[in-house]
What we know:
This protein is an all-alpha fold. The protein contains three helices and no strands. The chain has helices at about 5-30, 50-90, 95-120.
Amino acid sequence: xxxxxxxxxxxxxxxxxxxxxxxxxxxxxxxxxxxxxxxxxxxxxxxxxxxxxxxxxxxxxxxxxxxxxxxxxxxxxxxxxxxxxxxxxxxxxxxxxxxxxxxxxxxxxxxxxxxxxxxxxx
Length: 122
């Protein structure tokens, strides 16, 4: 019967512990060099931390404005599709569909213009 404290058993245990520690540290060593660097905001890094934060805030506001316009577009498309579907059931006419598309296009243009003006203020 082998003892748990034999030199061979202790050597195997220490080799296993070293391999486990090495395997645990390997991802930190191998992946730390390949991490991407943080990109500067569209207005540049700025001269200080507050200006850099403002520039990142500007990018966030532009992204929110883009999401607002995208949701407006989806809403106009959804309403136009609903009107188109009701043409086939006889509830709406082609004239109402054209009016829906025209008013939706005008609303999109006004929305894009207003959001462009609002982001220009920043």
